[in-house]
């Protein structure tokens, strides 16, 4: 586990803010793990991008100090040992200078993607690649708007922010399901083909190796008998779910509820509602406090992850990893607002958490298919092997996250 020279932070370095009007730093690459399939579906039956429970940003009049995180480093670049801004720091990102332009830009991207989705969803191009790309871009902009409204709630009109964030979470959940089912089916079918493929020939003169190869060949043969039926069963189940999700998405995009969301985002593209009263203006003065609070919540969640030597796999641990993934996404969006770009050091860990979610959901789909009544024993056997393979993928994703997580002190056992 490597230890970086600097700690993750959303506080701009002093030299990055000198001579800038809004206190934002240089833009970095937009490496969003959820920009592709992640679309985030968590559980297909729930909005995947809804901020996790217990992670609400502090509102006006609430305590704003970040919770203590086990293993959180004491020093931050660009800050003193007490956490205050370093010498030469002349400005901080504000709602007027950083958050409002960011929200307006994401709102414009939302509207642009919506227009492209309508164009590509015409009868001549219905179901094409362009429509899927436009839907992903639409979800991506909606997630960033919703995540920013969640983190920087105190810098905005709280009632408006809560209402729009809830509607955007509903929309992203509806749009993500079809994509999630398609990816899940492709992942499971590809895994079945790999598991039931031919075996490698054993070396000549190696009796033990030959016996092992023979046993393996028999196992492969038994697996091959049920693999085709298992693939057909999964295709029926997941294709049906995908078709229903597609119909639900089309219905949602034509509903009055969605049109109200589009109207609210269109207004956001030109005007960002500000908080009222003296307390609201004080909360909007700086975005550093809520951004650092989102960072501390991420570090706390990562520190609370179960260690990798806890024995046999336990499905109850999946929720903690999903929580860390959602908090990583919120931290990434806050980093984009304050510093103008994503933190490149969190690209690989975010990708690992996306793979973890995909493997968990694929394993759940294989287990659900295995519970189908009156299936042949060979089919159940193939689905059981597939479930174990996906659970191995879960453990591999967890190991990849621990290897790529750049802030090793946050992984110390509590």
Write the topology of this structure.
Blueprint (H helix, E strand, L loop, with lengths): L13 H4 L77 H26 L8 H23 L6 H38 L11 H47 L2 H13 L8 H7 L4 H16 L14 H22 L7 H24 L6 H28 L10
Task: Walk me through what this model shows.
The protein has 414 residues and is an all-alpha fold. It has a domain at 98-197 and 220-407: CHAD domain. It is built from 11 helices and no strands. The chain has helices at residues 14-17, 95-120, 129-151, 158-195, 207-253, 256-268, 277-283, 288-303, 318-339, 347-370, 377-404. The chain starts with 13 loop residues before the first helix and ends in a 10-residue tail after the last helix. Residues 27-79 have a biased composition (Low complexity). Residues 80-89 have a biased composition (Gly residues).
Describe, in short, the structure shown.
The protein has 414 residues and is mainly alpha-helical. The chain contains 11 helices and no strands.
Assigned CATH superfamily of the domain at 98-197 and 220-407 = CHAD domain
**What fold name goes in the CATH topology slot of the domain at 98-197 and 220-407?**
CHAD domain
In whole angstroms, how far apart are the ends?
A: 17 Å
Query: What series of H and E elements makes up the topology?
Result: HHHHHHHHHHH
Radius of gyration over C-alpha positions, nearest whole angstrom: 24 Å
* Largest sheet, strands/sense/barrel: none
Number of helices: 11
CATH hierarchy: architecture of the domain at 98-197 and 220-407: Alpha solenoid
What would you call the structural class? mainly alpha
Coarse shape: globular
Unreliable residue stretches: 1-6, 15-48, 53-90, 199-210, 410-414
Mean pLDDT: 76
| Tally of DSSP β-strands | 0
Q: In CATH's first tier, which class of the domain at 98-197 and 220-407 applies?
A: Mainly Alpha
Helix content: 55-70%
SS strand fraction: under 5%
């Amino acid at each position: 586990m490597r230890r970086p020279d600097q700690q993750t932070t959303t506080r701009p370095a002093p030299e990055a803010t000198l001579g800038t009007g809004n206190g934002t730093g240089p833009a970095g690459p937009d490496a969003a793990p959820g920009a592709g399939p992640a679309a985030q579906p968590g559980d297909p039956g729930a909005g995947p991008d809804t901020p996790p429970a217990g992670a609400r940003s502090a509102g006006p009049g609430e305590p704003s100090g970040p919770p203590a995180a086990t293993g959180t480093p004491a020093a931050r670049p660009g800050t003193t040992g007490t956490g205050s801004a370093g010498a030469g720091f002349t400005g901080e990102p504000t709602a007027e200078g950083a958050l409002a332009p960011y929200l307006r830009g994401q709102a414009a991207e939302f509207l642009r993607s919506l227009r492209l989705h309508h164009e590509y969803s015409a009868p001549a191009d219905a179901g094409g690649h362009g429509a899927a790309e436009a839907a992903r871009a639409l979800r991506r902009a909606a997630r960033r708007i919703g995540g920013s409204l969640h983190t920087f709630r105190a810098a905005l009109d709280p009632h408006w922010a809560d209402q729009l964030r809830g509607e955007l979470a509903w929309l992203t959940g509806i749009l993500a399901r079809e994509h999630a089912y398609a990816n899940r089916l492709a992942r499971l079918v590809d895994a079945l083909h790999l598991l039931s493929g031919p075996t490698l020939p054993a070396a000549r003169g190696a009796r033990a190796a030959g016996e092992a190869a023979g046993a393996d060949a028999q196992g492969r043969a038994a697996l091959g008998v049920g693999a085709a039926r298992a693939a057909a069963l999964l295709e029926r189940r997941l294709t049906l779910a995908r078709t229903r999700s597609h119909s639900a998405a089309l219905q949602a995009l034509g509903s009055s509820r969605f049109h109200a969301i589009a109207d609210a985002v269109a207004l956001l593209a030109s005007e960002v509602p500000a908080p009222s009263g003296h307390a609201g203006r004080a909360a909007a003065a700086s975005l550093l406090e809520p951004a650092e609070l989102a960072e501390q919540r991420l570090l706390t969640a990562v520190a609370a992850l179960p260690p990798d030597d806890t024995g046999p796999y336990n499905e109850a641990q999946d929720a903690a990893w999903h929580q860390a993934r959602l908090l990583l996404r919120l931290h990434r969006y806050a980093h984009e607002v304050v510093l103008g770009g994503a933190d490149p050091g969190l690209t690989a860990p975010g990708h690992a958490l996306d793979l973890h979610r995909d493997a968990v959901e694929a394993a759940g789909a294989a287990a659900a298919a295995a519970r189908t009544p009156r299936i042949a024993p060979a089919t159940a056997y193939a689905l059981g092997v597939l479930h174990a393979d996906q659970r191995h993928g879960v453990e591999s994703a967890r190991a990849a996250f621990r290897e790529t997580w750049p802030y090793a002190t946050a992984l110390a056992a509590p």
